[in-house]
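Deviations from the work plan: none for this task. Representative record:
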Amino acid sequence: MRETLADWRPAIDEAIADLVPREIDADYLESFFGAPTYEYDPAGIQHALSTPLWDLLDRGGKRWRAVLFLVFVDGFGADPAEYLPYACIPEILHNGTIIVDDVEDEATIRRGEPALHRIYGRDIALNAGNAMYFLPLKILTQDPADLPADRRLAAYEMLMHELNRTHLGQGMDICWHNERDVRIGTEEYLEMCACKTGCLGRIVARLAAIITDQPPEVERAVAEYAELTAVAFQIGDDILDVENSLGRAGEFGKEFGNDIREGKKTLLVIHALQESDAEQAQRLQEILQADTTADDEVLEALAILEDVGSIEYARERALDLAAEARAAIADLDFDDETAWKLDEFTEFVIERDE
Amino acid sequence: MRETLADWRPAIDEAIADLVPREIDADYLESFFGAPTYEYDPAGIQHALSTPLWDLLDRGGKRWRAVLFLVFVDGFGADPAEYLPYACIPEILHNGTIIVDDVEDEATIRRGEPALHRIYGRDIALNAGNAMYFLPLKILTQDPADLPADRRLAAYEMLMHELNRTHLGQGMDICWHNERDVRIGTEEYLEMCACKTGCLGRIVARLAAIITDQPPEVERAVAEYAELTAVAFQIGDDILDVENSLGRAGEFGKEFGNDIREGKKTLLVIHALQESDAEQAQRLQEILQADTTADDEVLEALAILEDVGSIEYARERALDLAAEARAAIADLDFDDETAWKLDEFTEFVIERDE
């Protein structure tokens, strides 16, 4: 069982289609949701659930949460094919959060096409996104791998813990976004990443550990690996935006200075405000708070970030996090190929250029 | 333990405050969400979670889901006080759905004040509402009543089942609302009610049965009672709107013809379209589909509903449902007072006048 990432995608999509078919009929509804008391409306459910879900999935996405889950399962010596339905859990949860986040952020574009709420309406998109929080959790009840009760309970308790923390992280992020001043420091920022992005990573790792019955210290180690990698990924995102902006300073295109124009409180910005002198800090805040930002103001903000060493600082922290992630699982008995894949993954999240 | 409904409210609110305190601090965050990897932002969580949650709860609400849960627990011979934290589960879930529904419907008013998203912004309101889907589910993990593992697992599996059906019901409702024509019949409408409103009722009843370890047939019976009562309640809502409109025909106030102006596909409307002649049906559809509706058009629609006997039909169905609800639990060994309370409840949902 040594497939590469891309090889798994069709099987993952098939497993998702077993959970939510592309075409909804009364038989599916009855088997998944139970017999109706009166009568279901399959056409309505098609429109409210299956169509938006598959629209989003068909736009792409690497399904890497499902793949990472399968890499762990494989590394734990179990057969990934047997646990394919469980791989859908973090994948569908993730896509659900995307839909909801886009409503919250009033995003216009998602994966190169209009955000779902711009196509189906806010109500349908939101309900579909929320439904995707609960649809995959039913896999544990259906229990295709015939897991013993204690593992299913452990999985539910783990999921409730992590999904609570996800909303904590999203709450902090939204709150800071709505505040004019930058009130928080780098450690609060990293905690937000650990909660918001890290928890879905932790779900991937812990679910693989729980369903294959690993001891608690192994579950903790892979959870730490996944959280650290996710936080590094988030910082990588922040760096990428600044680097793209610096690289494209001559073009002033749409991609130029996105985060600064949005006034986003990234790790780089928070660091710069902490480390710069009073005058620079004042100016950076002004630019971030402005409703519209001219290209030369973006350049000015970027210059402050460079001057204070915030790009270097962020890169160092991301590299440290990736190293910590590798160290977290160094003592586990993974085979060489799994260990190599997991190492590779921590490098990819920082070195990617898109 | 023979308190009336109102007597329980302070204790329920105290139990909710144990789960989400009015004032958030780092100690609470650590005890509920676990130690942070870096550092929490209590002020941010206060604003993102506790403030909107308590704003909504402090506006009122009878907490009847929590109370009904306690009535069941009492009726099953257990001590309600011991299970107070579990009573918060359906109550917080319900209030979470209110916040999310208001975003989906773009509602302006909730419990006499601006809808939460109009005060805190759509992003904060939505995230708080979604957090309220997962916060209460952690009570089962905290397990204050020291339940055995099999009951906790049964509770999680039940909750996942019912919360999936809730989103199915909401999906159908939104979908029909967005459609111009009335495509569905009375049985699909009742199914939507059974899913959307009934499932939260089922959660109340089944949770009480599960945590007090009732046999499956008792759990099924109280679930049926709760679902039927909830559907009757929903129909009661539809009737109330029409009756208020007829009663206030002289005033033409804000409350006059709400459902008709919104083009709501109520049981009465669906019945009228099925039973009326082609001309009446055509006219009713026109009035429902209009973007603005004059008072005399509302009166015309109401006259069609009256003429076809739709009000009588809806009342008959609601009364039948309430009778079915009482019959569902008639064979259970409840004490007289519990039996009386549960009977009373099925009558209240139809006879109320607000």
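Chain A is about 75% helix and 0% strand.
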